[in-house]
Automatic annotation (TrEMBL):
Pfam families: N_methyl (PF07963), T2SSI (PF02501). Signal peptide: none annotated. Residues 40-116 form the Type II secretion system protein GspI C-terminal domain. This is Type II secretion system protein I. It is found in: Cell inner membrane. Component of the type II secretion system required for the energy-dependent secretion of extracellular factors such as proteases and toxins from the periplasm. Belongs to the GSP I family. Keywords: Cell inner membrane, Cell membrane, Membrane, Methylation, Transmembrane, Transmembrane helix. It comes from Roseateles asaccharophilus. It is a single-pass membrane protein. Cleaved by prepilin peptidase. Type II secretion is composed of four main components: the outer membrane complex, the inner membrane complex, the cytoplasmic secretion ATPase and the periplasm-spanning pseudopilus.
Length: 119
Protein backbone atom coordinates (compact mmCIF):
# COMPACT_ATOMS: atom_id res chain seq x y z
CA UNK A 1 0.00 0.00 0.00
CA UNK A 2 1.33 3.42 -1.01
CA UNK A 3 1.60 6.13 1.70
CA UNK A 4 -0.28 9.32 0.79
CA UNK A 5 1.36 12.71 1.15
CA UNK A 6 -0.31 15.97 2.14
CA UNK A 7 -1.97 17.68 5.05
CA UNK A 8 -4.71 16.24 7.18
CA UNK A 9 -7.96 18.07 7.64
CA UNK A 10 -7.04 18.89 11.25
CA UNK A 11 -3.74 20.48 10.17
CA UNK A 12 -5.50 22.63 7.58
CA UNK A 13 -8.13 23.75 10.10
CA UNK A 14 -5.47 24.65 12.70
CA UNK A 15 -3.61 26.71 10.07
CA UNK A 16 -6.84 28.51 9.12
CA UNK A 17 -7.58 29.32 12.78
CA UNK A 18 -4.09 30.78 13.21
CA UNK A 19 -4.45 32.91 10.08
CA UNK A 20 -7.93 34.09 11.16
CA UNK A 21 -6.65 35.13 14.60
CA UNK A 22 -3.71 37.00 13.07
CA UNK A 23 -5.97 38.80 10.58
CA UNK A 24 -8.45 39.71 13.32
CA UNK A 25 -5.68 41.18 15.44
CA UNK A 26 -4.35 43.12 12.45
CA UNK A 27 -7.76 44.59 11.66
CA UNK A 28 -8.28 45.57 15.30
CA UNK A 29 -4.86 47.28 15.39
CA UNK A 30 -5.58 49.15 12.14
CA UNK A 31 -8.91 50.35 13.55
CA UNK A 32 -7.23 51.56 16.74
CA UNK A 33 -4.64 53.47 14.69
CA UNK A 34 -7.38 55.16 12.67
CA UNK A 35 -9.27 56.14 15.84
CA UNK A 36 -6.08 57.47 17.45
CA UNK A 37 -5.26 59.56 14.37
CA UNK A 38 -8.75 61.09 14.40
CA UNK A 39 -8.54 61.78 18.15
CA UNK A 40 -5.13 63.44 17.68
CA UNK A 41 -6.56 65.71 14.96
CA UNK A 42 -9.47 66.69 17.22
CA UNK A 43 -7.27 67.43 20.23
CA UNK A 44 -4.82 69.41 18.06
CA UNK A 45 -7.66 71.52 16.68
CA UNK A 46 -9.02 72.05 20.21
CA UNK A 47 -5.57 73.18 21.32
CA UNK A 48 -5.42 75.68 18.45
CA UNK A 49 -8.79 77.04 19.62
CA UNK A 50 -7.53 77.43 23.18
CA UNK A 51 -4.28 79.04 22.06
CA UNK A 52 -6.17 81.46 19.81
CA UNK A 53 -8.49 82.46 22.66
CA UNK A 54 -5.62 83.08 25.09
CA UNK A 55 -3.61 84.95 22.45
CA UNK A 56 -6.60 87.16 21.66
CA UNK A 57 -6.94 87.92 25.37
CA UNK A 58 -3.27 88.91 25.56
CA UNK A 59 -3.50 91.08 22.43
CA UNK A 60 -6.42 93.03 23.93
CA UNK A 61 -3.97 94.14 26.63
CA UNK A 62 -6.70 94.34 29.23
CA UNK A 63 -6.59 92.80 32.68
CA UNK A 64 -9.36 90.14 32.51
CA UNK A 65 -12.27 90.27 34.94
CA UNK A 66 -12.75 87.31 37.29
CA UNK A 67 -15.48 84.92 36.17
CA UNK A 68 -16.49 82.61 33.35
CA UNK A 69 -17.54 83.34 29.80
CA UNK A 70 -18.66 80.94 27.07
CA UNK A 71 -16.50 80.61 23.97
CA UNK A 72 -16.75 78.90 20.62
CA UNK A 73 -14.52 78.45 17.63
CA UNK A 74 -14.21 76.39 14.49
CA UNK A 75 -11.10 74.53 13.39
CA UNK A 76 -10.68 71.97 10.59
CA UNK A 77 -14.40 72.12 9.85
CA UNK A 78 -15.37 71.16 13.40
CA UNK A 79 -17.09 73.31 15.99
CA UNK A 80 -15.68 73.54 19.49
CA UNK A 81 -17.21 75.21 22.49
CA UNK A 82 -16.20 75.72 26.06
CA UNK A 83 -15.52 78.49 28.51
CA UNK A 84 -12.83 80.89 29.62
CA UNK A 85 -12.40 80.84 33.39
CA UNK A 86 -10.55 83.74 35.01
CA UNK A 87 -9.62 83.24 38.65
CA UNK A 88 -7.59 85.27 41.15
CA UNK A 89 -4.09 84.35 42.26
CA UNK A 90 -2.40 85.09 45.60
CA UNK A 91 -0.75 88.09 43.92
CA UNK A 92 -3.49 90.63 43.00
CA UNK A 93 -1.44 91.78 39.99
CA UNK A 94 -1.92 88.41 38.26
CA UNK A 95 -4.91 86.32 37.15
CA UNK A 96 -5.09 82.71 36.09
CA UNK A 97 -6.95 82.11 32.84
CA UNK A 98 -8.13 78.60 31.86
CA UNK A 99 -9.51 77.85 28.42
CA UNK A 100 -11.70 74.73 28.75
CA UNK A 101 -12.48 73.37 25.28
CA UNK A 102 -15.26 70.85 24.59
CA UNK A 103 -16.28 69.02 21.44
CA UNK A 104 -19.58 69.59 19.64
CA UNK A 105 -21.30 67.19 22.08
CA UNK A 106 -20.02 68.98 25.18
CA UNK A 107 -17.39 66.41 26.14
CA UNK A 108 -14.19 67.94 27.56
CA UNK A 109 -11.27 67.91 25.11
CA UNK A 110 -8.56 69.85 26.91
CA UNK A 111 -7.78 72.71 29.25
CA UNK A 112 -5.04 75.22 28.52
CA UNK A 113 -3.99 77.64 31.27
CA UNK A 114 -1.95 80.81 31.47
CA UNK A 115 -1.19 83.58 33.92
CA UNK A 116 -1.86 87.17 32.89
CA UNK A 117 -0.45 90.19 34.65
CA UNK A 118 -1.73 93.71 34.98
CA UNK A 119 -0.17 95.98 32.40
Amino acid sequence: MKKQRGFTLIEVLVALVIVAIALGAGIKAAGALANNADRLAQVSAAQWCAENLLTELRLNQQFPDIGESPVSCEQLGRSYGGKLRVSPTPNPLFRRVDADITDDQGRPMLTLSTIMGRI
